[in-house]
Amino acid sequence: MSSAVTEETGRATSTDQEQLQKQQEPEQHQQVPEQRQRELSPAGEAESGGTTGAAGAPVNGLDAIVADHNVIRELFNRYDTAATAQAKVTAARNLVRHVSRHASAEERTLYPLLREKHPQANLAKMLYDRMINKEVLEFLESHVPAGDAEWVLYDATLAKFRMIEDEHMAKEEAEVIEPLRQVLDASAVAKLGRRWSAAFANAPTHPHPGGTSGAARARLVHPVVGLIDRMRDALAT
Ligand SMILES: [Fe+2]
Asked: Which residue among 74, 98, 101, 188 is buried most deeply as judged by most CB within 10 Å?
């Protein structure tokens, strides 16, 4: 479970998307041209700080976020198919880490853009989901089941979280991503891609339920919290 270790330690320079691609198509991946790899790994741009493809093609921020949803879906699958308790704990940690980064990056890039372009959009349900999710993420991260009864509870919590997150991502794609596609030109989606990559790269790697989520304050606070999280990660390895 190489990408799991990668997420847990935070030491790798590539990302979940790249790791998943390698595991799903190991031989094909080695033969894929660099441009193709970058198109398939928008979150990977964030780790390296790069914001353009090999041929200088800008990253489409909306496509990058949808691709990252698919990474999250795959991380849920990994938990469901983990064969041992340790593998399940690792899969859960990786899921928590990735969703935490994803949510922070969206709070600072995607949602402010939606408010700007579609000020009438009703975000109450999606913001409520986020608040609940942070609480669940903290539970999943801080709790290691001690026996069969606790595993039943942990599995049920993760299954419930998956249900909420699946619905949330589908709603986000339909009610946030697609409306923005209708109004953003190529320059605007490329700008979003650069901002998304940078925000994902410096995002907190752990859930912070009590932390700020308003875009203006989040832009100031999240990179600092992300730095502290990474220091914690480094000390823990
Ligand atoms: Fe999302």
From this structure: 101
